Amino acid sequence: MPIFPILMVLTILGSATLCSITIYRLVSYNRKYHLPESKYTKLFGFITKEYVGFAYIIFTIFNVAFAVWFIITL
Fold this sequence. Notes:
By secondary structure, this protein is mainly alpha-helical. The chain has helices spanning 3-32, 49-72.
């Protein structure tokens, strides 16, 4: 197997691992330190840290799907 697909797979695994660790830390932080949300604690008045975490998960899934498709079509 050539080196490029191996590096791509390692990048995919690293990205998915980092995403899962980040989301785990966000959930554990939310459990330990509950932050009452108001319009002053949200980004632009409506974006919470949970929305950012969800967007991070979605973009990581798209990145993994595109990278796997790219490796398959090589």
